[in-house]
Amino acid sequence: MPCVYQLSREELDAALTGEPRYRADQVFQGLWRDNQAVGEISTIPKALRERLGSEFPSSLEVAHEVASDLGSTRKWVFRLADGATIETVLMAYADRVTVCVSSQAGCAMGCTFCATGQAGFSRQLSVGEVLEQVAFAARAAAPRRLSNVVFMGMGEPLANYAVTSTVVKRLHDYRGMSARHLTVSTVGVAPAIERLADEGLPLTLAVSLHAANNETRNELVPLNKKYPLERLATACHYWFDTTSRRVSLEWALIDGVNDTDRAAEELAAFALPLHAHVNLIPLNPTPGFLVMGTSSRRVFEFRTLLEDLGVNVTVRQTRGRSIDAACGQLAAVTNGKQRVSLRRS
Ligand code: SAH
Ligand code: SF4
Fold it and tell me: How far is CA 192 from CA 2, 167, 278, in A?
Protein backbone atom coordinates (compact mmCIF):
# COMPACT_ATOMS: atom_id res chain seq x y z
CA MET A 1 0.00 0.00 0.00
CA PRO A 2 1.40 3.42 -0.91
CA CYS A 3 2.05 6.02 1.78
CA VAL A 4 0.36 9.40 1.60
CA TYR A 5 3.53 11.08 0.18
CA GLN A 6 3.18 8.90 -2.90
CA LEU A 7 0.09 10.89 -3.88
CA SER A 8 0.21 13.86 -6.23
CA ARG A 9 -2.12 16.78 -5.48
CA GLU A 10 -4.59 15.39 -8.03
CA GLU A 11 -4.43 11.90 -6.53
CA LEU A 12 -5.00 13.36 -3.08
CA ASP A 13 -8.08 15.20 -4.37
CA ALA A 14 -9.34 11.93 -5.86
CA ALA A 15 -8.71 10.06 -2.60
CA LEU A 16 -10.89 12.62 -0.81
CA THR A 17 -13.83 12.46 -3.21
CA GLY A 18 -17.03 12.71 -1.18
CA GLU A 19 -15.43 15.03 1.39
CA PRO A 20 -15.99 18.80 1.30
CA ARG A 21 -13.63 20.41 -1.24
CA TYR A 22 -11.62 22.29 1.37
CA ARG A 23 -10.56 19.04 3.06
CA ALA A 24 -7.98 18.33 0.37
CA ASP A 25 -6.49 21.79 0.94
CA GLN A 26 -6.30 21.13 4.66
CA VAL A 27 -4.60 17.77 4.20
CA PHE A 28 -2.21 19.18 1.61
CA GLN A 29 -1.35 22.12 3.86
CA GLY A 30 -0.79 19.81 6.84
CA LEU A 31 1.46 17.40 4.96
CA TRP A 32 3.52 19.78 2.85
CA ARG A 33 3.50 23.17 4.55
CA ASP A 34 3.11 22.31 8.23
CA ASN A 35 5.09 19.07 8.17
CA GLN A 36 2.48 17.08 10.01
CA ALA A 37 2.00 13.34 9.96
CA VAL A 38 -1.51 12.34 8.88
CA GLY A 39 -2.49 11.66 12.48
CA GLU A 40 -1.42 15.16 13.51
CA ILE A 41 -3.54 17.16 11.06
CA SER A 42 -5.93 18.61 13.61
CA THR A 43 -7.89 20.71 11.08
CA ILE A 44 -9.58 17.54 9.75
CA PRO A 45 -11.93 15.20 11.66
CA LYS A 46 -10.47 12.27 13.56
CA ALA A 47 -12.37 9.77 11.43
CA LEU A 48 -10.75 11.15 8.28
CA ARG A 49 -7.29 11.07 9.86
CA GLU A 50 -7.91 7.42 10.70
CA ARG A 51 -9.20 6.59 7.23
CA LEU A 52 -6.19 8.21 5.53
CA GLY A 53 -3.86 6.54 8.02
CA SER A 54 -5.20 3.08 7.17
CA GLU A 55 -5.52 3.62 3.41
CA PHE A 56 -2.07 5.19 3.10
CA PRO A 57 0.06 3.76 5.91
CA SER A 58 3.59 5.00 6.61
CA SER A 59 6.20 3.31 4.42
CA LEU A 60 9.00 3.67 6.98
CA GLU A 61 9.44 1.80 10.21
CA VAL A 62 12.35 2.91 12.40
CA ALA A 63 14.57 -0.13 12.88
CA HIS A 64 17.41 1.75 14.53
CA GLU A 65 18.35 5.31 15.43
CA VAL A 66 21.79 6.70 16.34
CA ALA A 67 23.18 10.17 17.00
CA SER A 68 26.65 11.71 17.02
CA ASP A 69 28.38 15.10 16.92
CA LEU A 70 26.55 16.04 20.16
CA GLY A 71 23.22 15.17 18.61
CA SER A 72 23.60 17.38 15.55
CA THR A 73 23.96 14.31 13.28
CA ARG A 74 21.27 11.66 13.45
CA LYS A 75 20.92 8.52 11.40
CA TRP A 76 17.90 6.28 11.03
CA VAL A 77 17.79 2.79 9.63
CA PHE A 78 14.29 2.32 8.22
CA ARG A 79 12.68 -1.01 7.44
CA LEU A 80 10.37 -0.82 4.44
CA ALA A 81 7.16 -2.78 4.01
CA ASP A 82 8.92 -5.67 2.21
CA GLY A 83 11.76 -5.88 4.74
CA ALA A 84 14.36 -3.97 2.68
CA THR A 85 16.28 -1.46 4.77
CA ILE A 86 17.57 2.02 3.96
CA GLU A 87 19.36 4.76 5.84
CA THR A 88 18.63 8.49 6.20
CA VAL A 89 20.89 11.07 7.84
CA LEU A 90 19.94 14.45 9.30
CA MET A 91 22.69 17.04 9.81
CA ALA A 92 22.14 20.31 11.67
CA TYR A 93 24.64 23.10 10.98
CA ALA A 94 24.65 26.71 12.22
CA ASP A 95 23.17 28.02 8.98
CA ARG A 96 21.20 25.08 7.59
CA VAL A 97 19.61 21.73 8.33
CA THR A 98 20.21 19.06 5.70
CA VAL A 99 18.72 15.63 5.17
CA CYS A 100 20.62 13.06 3.16
CA VAL A 101 18.11 10.68 1.56
CA SER A 102 18.42 7.26 -0.03
CA SER A 103 17.08 6.82 -3.56
CA GLN A 104 17.53 3.04 -3.76
CA ALA A 105 17.84 0.19 -1.27
CA GLY A 106 21.48 -0.63 -1.96
CA CYS A 107 23.24 0.32 -5.19
CA ALA A 108 24.22 -1.57 -8.31
CA MET A 109 27.13 0.69 -9.30
CA GLY A 110 29.75 -1.16 -7.27
CA CYS A 111 32.12 1.72 -6.50
CA THR A 112 34.93 -0.01 -4.66
CA PHE A 113 35.35 2.50 -1.80
CA CYS A 114 31.64 2.81 -0.95
CA ALA A 115 29.91 0.65 1.67
CA THR A 116 26.58 0.82 -0.21
CA GLY A 117 28.29 -0.36 -3.39
CA GLN A 118 30.02 -3.16 -1.51
CA ALA A 119 26.64 -4.42 -0.21
CA GLY A 120 24.98 -4.56 -3.64
CA PHE A 121 21.54 -3.66 -4.96
CA SER A 122 18.21 -4.62 -3.47
CA ARG A 123 15.52 -2.52 -5.18
CA GLN A 124 14.35 0.89 -6.35
CA LEU A 125 12.58 3.16 -3.87
CA SER A 126 9.21 4.68 -4.70
CA VAL A 127 8.38 8.40 -4.74
CA GLY A 128 6.57 8.01 -1.42
CA GLU A 129 9.49 6.18 0.21
CA VAL A 130 11.91 8.98 -0.70
CA LEU A 131 9.54 11.82 0.19
CA GLU A 132 8.62 10.24 3.50
CA GLN A 133 12.32 10.28 4.47
CA VAL A 134 12.25 14.06 3.95
CA ALA A 135 8.99 14.46 5.91
CA PHE A 136 10.26 12.29 8.76
CA ALA A 137 13.53 14.22 8.98
CA ALA A 138 11.72 17.56 8.80
CA ARG A 139 9.61 16.58 11.80
CA ALA A 140 12.68 15.36 13.68
CA ALA A 141 14.47 18.65 12.94
CA ALA A 142 11.75 20.80 14.52
CA PRO A 143 11.77 23.46 15.81
CA ARG A 144 14.47 24.14 13.22
CA ARG A 145 13.34 24.20 9.63
CA LEU A 146 14.71 21.58 7.30
CA SER A 147 16.40 23.66 4.60
CA ASN A 148 18.30 21.27 2.31
CA VAL A 149 17.77 17.87 0.74
CA VAL A 150 20.74 16.00 -0.72
CA PHE A 151 20.44 12.75 -2.66
CA MET A 152 23.66 11.38 -1.18
CA GLY A 153 22.36 8.47 0.84
CA MET A 154 22.14 4.92 -0.46
CA GLY A 155 21.75 4.42 -4.17
CA GLU A 156 22.33 6.15 -7.49
CA PRO A 157 19.49 8.67 -7.97
CA LEU A 158 19.88 8.81 -11.75
CA ALA A 159 19.49 5.03 -11.97
CA ASN A 160 16.02 5.65 -10.50
CA TYR A 161 15.39 8.59 -12.79
CA ALA A 162 11.58 8.82 -12.86
CA VAL A 163 11.35 8.69 -9.08
CA THR A 164 14.18 11.19 -8.54
CA SER A 165 12.73 13.71 -10.98
CA THR A 166 9.23 13.43 -9.47
CA VAL A 167 10.61 13.82 -5.95
CA VAL A 168 12.56 16.93 -6.96
CA LYS A 169 9.50 18.44 -8.65
CA ARG A 170 7.32 17.77 -5.62
CA LEU A 171 9.89 19.19 -3.18
CA HIS A 172 9.95 22.30 -5.33
CA ASP A 173 6.24 22.64 -6.07
CA TYR A 174 4.74 21.28 -2.84
CA ARG A 175 7.38 22.06 -0.20
CA GLY A 176 8.54 25.27 -1.86
CA MET A 177 12.23 24.32 -2.02
CA SER A 178 14.56 25.95 -4.55
CA ALA A 179 17.29 24.52 -6.76
CA ARG A 180 19.91 25.92 -4.41
CA HIS A 181 18.57 23.71 -1.63
CA LEU A 182 18.13 20.48 -3.61
CA THR A 183 21.25 18.55 -4.59
CA VAL A 184 21.28 15.38 -6.65
CA SER A 185 24.61 13.55 -6.53
CA THR A 186 25.41 11.16 -9.37
CA VAL A 187 28.26 8.82 -10.11
CA GLY A 188 28.06 10.02 -13.72
CA VAL A 189 25.16 8.56 -15.69
CA ALA A 190 25.89 10.84 -18.67
CA PRO A 191 22.62 10.53 -20.69
CA ALA A 192 20.55 11.05 -17.53
CA ILE A 193 22.49 14.26 -16.74
CA GLU A 194 21.57 15.56 -20.19
CA ARG A 195 17.96 14.59 -19.71
CA LEU A 196 17.85 16.42 -16.36
CA ALA A 197 19.23 19.51 -18.09
CA ASP A 198 16.63 19.28 -20.87
CA GLU A 199 13.81 18.96 -18.37
CA GLY A 200 15.00 22.07 -16.51
CA LEU A 201 14.53 20.49 -13.09
CA PRO A 202 15.25 22.80 -10.16
CA LEU A 203 18.32 21.19 -8.63
CA THR A 204 22.02 21.48 -7.99
CA LEU A 205 24.03 18.75 -9.69
CA ALA A 206 26.93 17.07 -7.91
CA VAL A 207 29.08 14.66 -9.91
CA SER A 208 31.18 12.14 -8.00
CA LEU A 209 34.38 12.32 -10.02
CA HIS A 210 37.14 11.00 -7.70
CA ALA A 211 39.62 10.59 -10.56
CA ALA A 212 40.21 12.56 -13.72
CA ASN A 213 42.10 9.90 -15.66
CA ASN A 214 40.23 6.89 -17.02
CA GLU A 215 42.63 4.29 -15.68
CA THR A 216 42.17 5.28 -12.02
CA ARG A 217 38.47 6.09 -12.43
CA ASN A 218 37.77 2.69 -14.00
CA GLU A 219 39.08 1.11 -10.81
CA LEU A 220 37.17 3.30 -8.39
CA VAL A 221 33.94 3.75 -10.35
CA PRO A 222 33.11 0.79 -12.64
CA LEU A 223 30.48 2.89 -14.48
CA ASN A 224 33.39 4.84 -15.95
CA LYS A 225 33.92 1.96 -18.40
CA LYS A 226 30.46 2.69 -19.82
CA TYR A 227 30.64 6.48 -19.63
CA PRO A 228 34.33 7.43 -19.63
CA LEU A 229 35.58 10.88 -18.65
CA GLU A 230 35.26 12.34 -22.15
CA ARG A 231 31.56 11.33 -22.25
CA LEU A 232 30.98 12.58 -18.72
CA ALA A 233 32.63 15.92 -19.53
CA THR A 234 30.30 16.33 -22.52
CA ALA A 235 27.29 15.78 -20.25
CA CYS A 236 28.61 18.19 -17.60
CA HIS A 237 29.22 20.88 -20.22
CA TYR A 238 25.73 20.30 -21.58
CA TRP A 239 24.33 20.74 -18.06
CA PHE A 240 26.22 24.02 -17.55
CA ASP A 241 25.39 25.40 -20.98
CA THR A 242 21.71 24.48 -20.71
CA THR A 243 20.97 25.44 -17.11
CA SER A 244 23.66 28.09 -16.42
CA ARG A 245 24.22 26.33 -13.12
CA ARG A 246 27.66 25.16 -12.05
CA VAL A 247 28.32 21.50 -11.37
CA SER A 248 29.92 20.45 -8.09
CA LEU A 249 32.59 17.80 -8.43
CA GLU A 250 32.94 15.42 -5.49
CA TRP A 251 36.37 13.98 -4.80
CA ALA A 252 36.93 11.48 -1.95
CA LEU A 253 40.64 11.75 -1.18
CA ILE A 254 42.33 8.35 -1.10
CA ASP A 255 45.91 8.03 0.11
CA GLY A 256 48.34 7.61 -2.78
CA VAL A 257 45.52 7.02 -5.29
CA ASN A 258 43.98 10.38 -6.15
CA ASP A 259 45.78 12.83 -3.86
CA THR A 260 49.02 13.28 -5.83
CA ASP A 261 50.22 16.50 -7.46
CA ARG A 262 49.42 14.92 -10.82
CA ALA A 263 45.86 14.11 -9.70
CA ALA A 264 45.37 17.76 -8.71
CA GLU A 265 46.50 18.87 -12.17
CA GLU A 266 44.14 16.39 -13.87
CA LEU A 267 41.26 17.50 -11.67
CA ALA A 268 41.97 21.17 -12.42
CA ALA A 269 42.01 20.43 -16.16
CA PHE A 270 38.56 18.82 -15.84
CA ALA A 271 37.06 21.43 -13.48
CA LEU A 272 38.29 24.74 -14.89
CA PRO A 273 36.57 24.73 -18.30
CA LEU A 274 33.34 23.73 -16.50
CA HIS A 275 33.66 26.53 -13.91
CA ALA A 276 32.93 23.71 -11.49
CA HIS A 277 33.16 23.84 -7.74
CA VAL A 278 35.24 21.04 -6.21
CA ASN A 279 34.27 19.40 -2.90
CA LEU A 280 37.05 17.42 -1.28
CA ILE A 281 35.89 14.69 1.12
CA PRO A 282 38.51 12.81 3.11
CA LEU A 283 37.70 9.13 2.39
CA ASN A 284 35.55 7.59 5.11
CA PRO A 285 36.54 4.09 6.21
CA THR A 286 34.46 1.16 4.91
CA PRO A 287 34.90 -2.55 5.62
CA GLY A 288 35.57 -3.64 2.05
CA PHE A 289 38.18 -1.07 1.00
CA LEU A 290 41.46 -1.21 2.82
CA VAL A 291 43.22 1.81 1.33
CA MET A 292 43.44 4.73 3.75
CA GLY A 293 42.00 8.17 3.50
CA THR A 294 44.38 11.05 2.87
CA SER A 295 46.00 12.60 5.98
CA SER A 296 44.69 16.00 7.02
CA ARG A 297 48.04 17.58 6.18
CA ARG A 298 47.89 16.26 2.64
CA VAL A 299 44.22 17.28 2.29
CA PHE A 300 45.34 20.82 3.08
CA GLU A 301 48.21 20.62 0.56
CA PHE A 302 45.94 19.17 -2.12
CA ARG A 303 43.43 21.96 -1.58
CA THR A 304 46.20 24.57 -1.81
CA LEU A 305 47.48 22.99 -5.04
CA LEU A 306 44.00 23.27 -6.57
CA GLU A 307 43.57 26.85 -5.38
CA ASP A 308 46.91 27.77 -6.91
CA LEU A 309 45.67 26.29 -10.19
CA GLY A 310 42.62 28.57 -9.98
CA VAL A 311 40.03 25.99 -8.90
CA ASN A 312 37.14 26.92 -6.64
CA VAL A 313 37.45 24.32 -3.86
CA THR A 314 36.14 23.47 -0.37
CA VAL A 315 36.88 20.62 2.01
CA ARG A 316 33.65 19.04 3.17
CA GLN A 317 33.22 18.73 6.91
CA THR A 318 32.86 15.06 7.81
CA ARG A 319 29.80 14.28 9.90
CA GLY A 320 28.68 11.07 11.54
CA ARG A 321 31.77 8.91 11.00
CA SER A 322 31.51 7.32 14.44
CA ILE A 323 27.98 6.07 13.68
CA ASP A 324 28.72 5.00 10.08
CA ALA A 325 26.59 7.88 8.85
CA ALA A 326 29.21 9.70 6.79
CA CYS A 327 29.42 9.76 2.99
CA GLY A 328 29.73 6.29 1.55
CA GLN A 329 29.27 4.51 4.86
CA LEU A 330 25.58 3.70 4.54
CA ALA A 331 25.19 -0.03 4.22
CA ALA A 332 22.09 -1.21 6.04
CA VAL A 333 21.83 -4.79 4.84
CA THR A 334 18.91 -4.69 2.45
CA ASN A 335 17.56 -8.22 2.69
CA GLY A 336 15.92 -7.76 6.07
CA LYS A 337 18.70 -9.42 8.04
CA GLN A 338 20.39 -7.70 10.95
CA ARG A 339 23.08 -5.27 9.94
CA VAL A 340 26.59 -6.57 10.57
CA SER A 341 29.02 -3.91 11.67
CA LEU A 342 32.63 -4.63 10.84
CA ARG A 343 33.88 -1.30 12.14
CA ARG A 344 37.07 -1.49 14.15
CA SER A 345 36.71 -0.51 17.80
N1 SAH B 1 25.32 7.37 -5.90
C2 SAH B 1 25.49 8.77 -5.80
C3 SAH B 1 24.99 9.34 -4.49
C4 SAH B 1 25.22 8.55 -3.24
S5 SAH B 1 26.90 8.45 -2.73
C6 SAH B 1 26.93 9.13 -6.04
O7 SAH B 1 27.79 8.25 -6.06
O8 SAH B 1 27.20 10.31 -6.24
C9 SAH B 1 27.17 10.05 -2.03
C10 SAH B 1 28.60 10.54 -2.05
O11 SAH B 1 29.43 9.77 -1.17
C12 SAH B 1 29.25 10.42 -3.42
O13 SAH B 1 29.95 11.60 -3.74
C14 SAH B 1 30.20 9.26 -3.20
O15 SAH B 1 31.23 9.24 -4.14
C16 SAH B 1 30.66 9.51 -1.82
N17 SAH B 1 31.32 8.37 -1.18
C18 SAH B 1 31.09 7.07 -1.38
N19 SAH B 1 31.89 6.31 -0.58
C20 SAH B 1 32.63 7.18 0.13
C21 SAH B 1 33.62 7.01 1.15
N22 SAH B 1 33.97 5.81 1.59
N23 SAH B 1 34.19 8.13 1.67
C24 SAH B 1 33.81 9.36 1.24
N25 SAH B 1 32.87 9.58 0.32
C26 SAH B 1 32.28 8.50 -0.24
FE1 SF4 C 1 26.41 3.70 -5.60
FE2 SF4 C 1 27.21 6.23 -5.19
FE3 SF4 C 1 28.12 4.23 -3.65
FE4 SF4 C 1 28.91 4.39 -6.19
S5 SF4 C 1 29.34 5.88 -4.55
S6 SF4 C 1 28.25 2.52 -5.15
S7 SF4 C 1 27.07 5.13 -7.17
S8 SF4 C 1 26.04 4.93 -3.77
Answer: 26, 16, 21
pLDDT score recorded for residue 290: 82
Same domain for 52 and 91, yes or no, is no
Residues marked as catalytic = 87, 327
Ligand 1 pocket, residues with Cβ under 6 angstroms: 113-114, 152, 156, 185-187, 208, 250, 252, 281, 283-284, 286, 327-328
Flag whether the pTM goes above 0.85. yes
What is the per-residue pLDDT across 46-69, written as a single tens digit (0 to 9) for each? 999 999 999 999 999 999 999 999
Considering the domain architecture, whether residues 23 and 168 belong to the same structural domain is answered as no
Q: Which of 150, 187, 329 to mutate to test the pocket of ligand 2 (most atoms within 8 A of CB)?
A: 187
Taking the CA of residue 154 as reference, the ligand 2 atom at the shortest distance is: 8
Helix axes 229-243, 190-199, angle to 10 degrees: 10
CATH (domain of 2) = 1.10.150.530
Claim to verify: residue 93 and residue 8 sit in the same structural domain:
no
Degrees (nearest 5) of the Cα angle 180, 182, 188?
110
Q: What is the pLDDT of residues 149-164, one digit of tens each?
A: 999 999 999 999 999 9
